[in-house]
Design brief:
There is one protein chain. With about 400 residues, this protein is mostly beta strands. The strands form five sheets. It has a ten-stranded mixed beta sheet with strand order 10-9-8-7-15-14-13-12-11-17. A seven-stranded antiparallel beta sheet has the order 18-16-23-22-21-20-19. The N terminus is likely disordered.
């Protein structure tokens, strides 16, 4: 029996050889290039990643005796994870190759799906809460001179575990007086569908944890950047922060407003037929005090997962891959401070690129942050989600 040798050569979006936890066979895990000057790391003051610019692997498999040895080289980046099992069938070796990104999506689907109930509120581009329209506020609140800033919300969410398809609805409920959730009436429903090739979706990046980032094109000059972050200390708690961004002349990006949802997992998906009501483990938050700038300033140790967009070999649907730990330097005075330990920012650099960041300060000196880097023409380039721990000198 002869040996067939396949040699692949990858570009700077290299392949990292890792061991699959459930198999003795190694698999390829794609990592992404970092631009020190213009990428997310450069804008946040991170040192550059170190890559081997060309990494070579040789895969060996047995074939029939009359097959000659062959070598195949490619410079195309590998954008899917793959694994392989082999078994003997008489004189032949049969190899089965599967896409392990399906496993990551399946985990994401399991963690993101369900009934997510909570509260939502709108804020100005300076972080000031915006009152609900007077027409939706019960008369009793007006008599008591109580200002209402929060909607009670539902977000029924369903992701197909075997197909990269996600659908969810953001439902705003009319305010009620007292514990009248069972009688709540829908005020608005915003339904979103996520899949490859869908109109209006510029980029979508996800983690197996259930966190994701989506860039929605609402009009020619209006983007919605949605960041959903699962609390790593409590997988049934999450926030969704939407930045409404006005694009001027296809280059300048200006923050118009912010919408925040604080949500708890209430149960399996029922398409919003059942409301958590008084069992919702949260409360209205918009009028509570914003976080302090000093709480987010300083040096943080960040373990970052990244996805790249806008190149010839990448689509709009990407998984976020884990990278090495890096230091992140943050100035709290440059952020828009929000209640419940949340903040966000939108900054442009000298090269015309724009960086959006959304952060959530957790317990025990940890934060989870989401960043999106846009090109000088307002196109998404890089998306990242990082789990950060405050450096000891700032603890």
């Amino acid at each position: 029996m002869a040996v067939f040798s396949v040699t692949t050569t990858t570009s700077p979006s290299s392949c990292l050889l890792q061991q699959h936890p459930s198999s003795s066979s190694p698999y390829l895990r794609g990592s992404l290039p970092y631009n020190q000057k213009f990428g997310i790391s450069g804008m946040l003051g991170l040192p550059p990643f170190s890559f081997n610019w060309r990494r070579r692997r040789t895969l060996m498999c047995a074939v029939n005796q009359d097959t000659e040895e062959a070598i195949v080289e490619t410079d195309s980046p590998i954008d899917v994870l793959r694994n392989k099992d082999s078994y003997q069938d008489g004189s032949r070796t049969i190899s089965t190759v599967w896409d392990t990104s399906i496993e990551a999506w399946s985990q994401f689907a399991r963690r993101v799906s369900g009934e997510w109930d909570g509260f939502g509120a709108d804020f100005s581009n300076e972080g000031k809460p915006i009152e609900l329209p007077e027409s939706v506020v019960p008369e009793a609140y007006r008599e008591w001179e109580v200002k209402v800033f929060d909607w009670q919300t539902q977000c029924p969410t369903l992701a197909e575990p075997k197909e990269r398809v996600l659908q969810y609805k953001s439902i705003q409920l009319l305010p009620t007086v007292g514990c009248e959730a069972d009688a709540a009436t829908q005020y608005s429903v915003d339904e979103r569908n996520v899949r490859e090739g869908i109109s209006g979706l510029n980029a979508f990046a996800y983690q197996s944890s259930g966190s994701y980032v989506a860039v929605w094109q609402k009009k020619d000059n209006l983007l919605e950047l949605e960041c959903c972050m699962i609390n790593p200390q409590d997988c049934e708690s999450r926030v969704r922060v939407i930045q409404f961004i006005h694009v001027l002349n296809n280059t300048e990006m200006v923050l118009q407003g912010i919408r925040v949802f604080r949500e708890q997992w209430y149960g399996p998906f029922r398409n919003g037929d059942q409301l958590g009501g008084c069992a919702v483990r949260d409360s209205a938050f918009a009028s509570t005090a914003p976080m302090a700038a000093s709480d987010v300033a300083g040096i943080w140790k960040a373990s970052t997962a990244i996805a790249t967009f806008g190149t010839q070999n990448t689509g709009i649907f990407q998984e976020l891959f884990d990278e090495k730990v890096q230091d992140s330097v943050r100035d709290g005075d440059c952020n828009i401070l929000l209640p419940k330990q949340l903040w966000c920012s939108l900054k442009q650099n000298k090269e015309g690129e724009t960086l959006s960041e959304v952060g959530w300060l957790l317990d025990h000196g940890q934060t989870i942050t989401s960043s999106c880097l846009f090109s000088s023409t307002a196109k998404p380039q890089e998306i990242s989600i990082a789990l950060e721990t405050r450096a000891l000198e700032y603890a």
